Amino acid sequence: MTQQEIINTIALTRLGYFGLAGLLDLYRRAESATEIVERRQHIRDILPDASDRLVDAFNNMDEALRLAEAEFEQDMALGIVPLTMADDRYPQRLRECADAPLMLYYKGSADLNQLRIVSIVGTRHTTAYGQDLVRKFMAELRQLCPNVLIVSGLAYGVDICAHRHALAQGYETVGVLAHGLDELYPTAHRQTAEEMLSHGGLLTEYMFQTRVDKSNFVRRNRIVAGMADAVVLVESATKGGGLITARIARDYDREVFAFPGSVGAKFSEGCHLLIKESTASLICSAADLVETMGWTTDAALSAAHEQGIEAQLFPELTEEEHKVVATLQRQNDLQVNILSVQSGIPIGRLSAILFSLEMKGVVRSMAGGNFHLNR
């Protein structure tokens, strides 16, 4: 990823008033921001139905490029990583979404493409019941699945409770912000946010000097939803950001779970609504989520890896397992889709084979969805 490609992508986001969907369409057709900027005087060659307003914007984008260069310099000075959609570190799950951000800004230590990612959301007015749910959920999940990235929004209530209990359990946790990384809102959560930088991170689509605005919080909910495998709604009234996030997650075809509460309890009504309309599955414990997600073997996998099991201890491989091993011997560290093509094994079947090979200590999953042959 070149510096100029990053700057050009940032500049495109400065034209965001044309609508994210339109810019994404343009970006995906051109396959790079640099291609768009270099051909900006002839933008209809890429997007034939571009509006006159969009054509005018590209004819006068010098200011956007200047501001993008300044943003990039500030990012570098503060250790912020700008992530374009073409960057392998960009959340791959989020990239699949139709309204994914063109750019993300990240500061932290966690891999945003971990094997398991769970987003915890809910009301900013969490009760003692909700706080206890989060504490118990996180402790049980840690026992069942030691390797999960926890995502939330660093807001008051359920969000900050999720981050703090994740840290207490030794999980990495990422906060998705509704403003630039040059400030922190709410400031009361600064100490937790600083701890998260070395045990997770902070992520945003917003540039420096972005005003904390109500609409930004709504927009950031799609990132919380899109970068996860599952979204858990802990407590919510019949209206609120947690409810919005859960519905976005369902639209993204993510698994959505909700904890029940007492009948008539204000901050359980939203959970009950989602369960009633089948938007969310009822959940009473972390075990319910683990079973539904098919993660019941994570603990066994972790134990096998920690024991350093060597491939030669498991010489009995099936014909298909030998085929996968042979493919990885030719070229190691392949993503599932590439491994499927090169081995000739359909992805649905390949997933089961890779799991079997992981249990035998022959391969291991790595960041970015790659699989590595243990030699």
Largest sheet features: 9 strands, mixed
**How do the SSEs run, as a string of H and E?**
HHHHHEHEEHEHEHEHEHEHEHHHEHHEE
The computed structural class is: alpha/beta
Shape: globular
Radius of gyration: 22 Å
* Discrete helix count: 17
Helical percent range? Answer: 40-55%
End-to-end C-alpha gap: 30 Å
**Mean model confidence by pLDDT:** 89
- Uncertain runs with pLDDT below 50, 5 residues or more? 308-314
Binned strand content: 5-15%
Tally the beta strands.
12
Strand ordering within the main sheet: 1-2-6-5-4-3-7-8-9
Describe what you observe in this structure:
- With 375 residues, the protein is of the alpha/beta class.
- 47% of the residues lie in helices and 13% in strands.
- It contains 17 helices and 12 strands.
- Strands 1-2-6-5-4-3-7-8-9 form a 9-stranded mixed beta sheet, with helices on both faces. The chain has a 3-stranded antiparallel beta sheet with strand order 10-12-11.
- The longest helix has 17 residues, at 128-144.
- The protein is globular.
- The two termini are 30 Å apart.
- Mean pLDDT is 89; it is low at 308-314.
Give a short synopsis of this structure.
This protein is α/β, with parallel strands linked by helices and 375 residues long. The chain has helices at residues 3-13, 20-30, 33-38, 52-59, 62-77, 92-95, 128-144, 158-168, 190-198, 214-226, 241-251, 269-276, 286-293, 298-306, 319-330, 336-343, 347-359; strands at residues 81-84, 103-108, 117-121, 149-152, 172-176, 200-204, 230-233, 255-258, 281-282, 334-335, 363-365, 370-373.
